[in-house]
Structure formats: C-alpha cells, structure tokens
Amino acid sequence: MEQTELLIIGQGPAGLSAAIYAARAGVRTTILGCAPKVAGDYDIDNYFGFEETISGHELIERGKRQATRFGASMRCERVLGLHQDEDGSFVATAEHGEVRAQAVILATGVSRARPGVSNLADYEGKGVSYCVSCDGFFYRNRPVLVAGQGTFAANQALELTNYTPRVTIVTQGKAPTMSADYRARLAEANIPVLERSVVRLEGATAMERAVLDDGTGLDADGLFVAMGEASSLDFAYTLGLERNGVFIQADSEQRTNIPGVYAAGDCVGRFLQIAVAVGEGAKAGRAAIEHVKARRKAA
Ligand SMILES: Cc1cc2nc3c(=O)[nH]c(=O)nc-3n(C[C@H](O)[C@H](O)[C@H](O)COP(=O)(O)OP(=O)(O)OC[C@H]3O[C@@H](n4cnc5c(N)ncnc54)[C@H](O)[C@@H]3O)c2cc1C
Q1: How far does residue 12's CA lie from ligand 1's centre (Å)?
Q2: 108, 235: one domain
Q3: Domain of 192: which CATH number?
Q4: Domain of 220?
Q5: Is the Cα torsion angle 170, 174, 178, 179 positive or negative in sign?
C-alpha cells in the first residue's frame, strides 16, 4: 500500500495551500484530487497580490507548481472512502488503490449532487442513506438501490454486497461513467445498472418501493445516494466527523473532532472564497505538521 505522512484530499486553493506549508516543512505530502471548478476560464479579480485579473486556471497552475517545488506529489485521482486503522493512521481508498497516511486534510470543496427524487427528504433515515459504511448493515439481505452513475456509485454498490446480494444501480437517467473494470466487477456481483431515474419513493412508515420515470415500481427498502463523487460529507459519515449541516465542523485551527483529521476551505462553509480557503489551508497544514511530528516521535 502507498505510504505517505500527510494526505490532502482536494487540489483546490485550500489543499494546495496546505501542501505548500506541509511539504516546505519536510512532511511527506500527497495530494489526491482533480482540477477544481474555479480552474476553468474564470476571471479572478479579488485575490490579494494580483493587480491584474488572473484566470482561475493560471492561479491553480501556479499553486500546483509551487507545491511541487517543495516536494508535494499530486495526481488527479478520486478518493472514494476513508477510514482510521487501530494504530491511528488513516487509509484512503482511491480509484487506483489505497493510501495510508498519518494525518489527513479534507479540502474537497462543496458539491453535492442531488438525485432529483421528489420526496427524498421524507424518507431520509427511513430508507434514504448517504453512507454504505454507516447504514449498509441495516439492509442485510434486503433489496436496495444505489443512485448514481460514476465510480463512486459502483464502489458503494460493491460495498453493499457485504450486506445484501440484492443491489441495483439506477443512474438517474445519466450515461454510466464508471470504468470498464468497475462494470465488469458489477456484472460479476450481479448488480444491474439501470439507465433510468427514480422519481418518487413510496412506503407507509419507511421506504418500500421506488417509482421510476417510466412509471414502473421497483421493490426496494433502501436508496443509497452516490451521485457525483465522494464528498467531504461522505467521509464525514464514515469517520464519524461532526458536521454543521452540509459542512464539516472545524475549529479555528481547522481541527475536526477526530485527531489527525483537518478540514479547510469551502468544505467547512463560512465565507466561500479563495482567500479564505488559502488561509484555512495554511492553518490546516500547520496543524497537520504538528500531528505528523508527534506521530514520528511516538513511532
Ligand atoms: C466559477 C467560479 C468562480 C469563482 N470565482 C471566485 C472569485 O472570483 N474569487 C473568489 O475568491 N472565489 C471564487 N470562487 C469560489 C472559489 O473558487 C472557492 O471558494 C475555492 O475554490 C474553494 O477552494 P477549496 O480548495 O476549498 O475547494 P475547491 O476549489 O472546490 O476544490 C475542491 C477540490 O477537491 C477535490 N475533490 C472533491 N471531492 C474529492 C474526492 N472525493 N477525492 C479527491 N478529490 C476530491 C476536487 O477535485 C478539487 O480539487 C469561484 C468559484 C467558482 C465555481
């Protein structure tokens, strides 16, 4: 398994800023994440030090080069899950393998695609779940659906087979984007992938059925939402991180309630701006450096 000291999840301003501090302090730093939204052809006019407008693309490229100069390694790879081992280290399951780290900074920004099910909220906690690791156990041998079209949905569906063989993926009308390897693993696990949409849920006191866009009903006791990619919120559910609505709860030093896990930037809410993300990333980097040093001493 790949080993690092600090794993940063997110390659936006918060993650890159944290990486610059940590790598510059001699901490082995790995960043997983792809180009953030702002790295497109957008004009940034309010970031300190750039008298002339700079494009989001150029700003992020500069940040990446700077973090690389200090030794941070980075690649465009999605993290699908994160858990803590008994020895206190963290293991991230990414698209191409696992990474073990002594500290983790969540800098995953905000984006949570909703599946567009009309009465989803009515069944949250009564069938609708966002976390297989947390709730899969409650659906042993029962029929369940996973809403999503990508690798994250495939991964969640495969994880569900630890609890039940009766798993179906519904892509919410989108073309599946999971890799051929994942498609093969789904086929082997007998998990159908339906290119339809769940539009409504039914059930007296808890979910019993999903109604599809063509009017057919699918018997299912659970709907696991796995649209888009894993977000901070998904990691929060698995790790038991305290949340503040859709954001991760972090103190003024960017510490979460789990020692060794820090959160910075848009994923903690507050003022969703580059300057704030960069500042919080710096603080998270500093806190993570201290944690890594303490772990080195204890080893
Ligand atoms: C179009 C647009 C224009 C903007 N203009 C401005 C502006 O002019 N000025 C300003 O101050 N702010 C602007 N913002 C807001 C600003 O971009 C954000 O506040 C800032 O980017 C937040 O930084 P972040 O690092 O917290 O998150 P993001 O920049 O959103 O980066 C999140 C990172 O997390 C990664 N990620 C997410 N999930 C996973 C996962 N499961 N595994 C691995 N990686 C993951 C993503 O790939 C990405 O690299 C703009 C935003 C947008 C979208």
Answers
A1: 5
A2: yes
A3: 3.50.50.60
A4: 120-225
A5: positive
